[in-house]
């Protein structure tokens, strides 16, 4: 049965907004662990492993508009990679991460199903118009999907709650101030990140620069003497490498300011997945399990696309075969303008 505009209005009037359940509910706070990084930096591989350690329940990217209709509301008007000041309450994001980190939420399976159904006709590019920082007209179906759908959560009550996000690289300090999680950040050679973005047609900006972040990004870049948004087509290689450079800068600054952050270097993990992942778990206070080890062994085989299966030893440096020389030259010209490039001699030259 088709859901028309009149039906949408009745739905909104009848069920209202899916809200975290906060009144008179006392829930013991679990240990919080956050995996943060860039898209295609190895964070899903790490999440799949750590979610199989002892006493862990997890939520995979509660702020991903492809996974959860409620993420459309969480990011509405602030961009796909928002820059949120540590003292900014930002209720729309709090609603998203409060629930992901364990706050109970009132919702029914029917609400989730309705939200997914309403969102289904819209591809990723059309859905992301809702996060544009520039004013835009939002289709009523998308507004209703975001309103009705519950935030991403796990029904399990466990001692540890694990949340992965690849959208908060510019707001790590906000996450620390509001949730005080143990944080592990994933790092990967930016050329390999770029090669993966190209092969999977990933571009957070898409067709509008306003999808990345709000106007406050300009001042943030100025204060750090980082390159401003290039005056190029936002779908170009130069644009993509600039976005990668900016996001890595956010991660690098957090690592410098908070030495307690655990670093998961993709290239190091690939050398000895079991040994290195076990070490990461130990640093976070997580208890290793045979299930985690079996998961890693299952993934260490050929795969492609969004599949996390890969022969780990063959992944680092694969950009040399995947990227054309002219693409490498264009990417290097942008990457070398960022201080963190010094970590990668094969880029800095």
How is this structure best summarized?
This protein is α/β, with parallel strands linked by helices and 349 residues long.
What does this structure look like?
The structure is a single chain. The longest helix has 21 residues, at 237-257. Helix content is 43%, strand content 8%. α5 packs antiparallel against α7 and α11 packs across α16. The protein has one domain (5-348): 3-Layer(aba) Sandwich (Rossmann fold), CATH 3.40.50.300. Residues 20-28 have low confidence and may be disordered. The relative contact order is 0.17. A 5-stranded parallel beta sheet has the order 2-3-1-4-5, with helices on both faces. By secondary structure, it is an alpha/beta fold. It has helices at 5-15, 43-50, 70-74, 91-100, 109-119, 124-127, 140-148, 172-179, 190-199, 216-223, 237-257, 266-271, 273-283, 290-299, 319-322, 325-335, 345-348; strands at 31-36, 56-60, 160-165, 182-187, 262-265.
Task: Outline the secondary-structure elements.
Elements: H1 5-15, E1 31-36, H2 43-50, E2 56-60, H3 70-74, H4 91-100, H5 109-119, H6 124-127, H7 140-148, E3 160-165, H8 172-179, E4 182-187, H9 190-199, H10 216-223, H11 237-257, E5 262-265, H12 266-271, H13 273-283, H14 290-299, H15 319-322, H16 325-335, H17 345-348
Parallel strand pairs: 1-3, 1-4, 2-3, 4-5
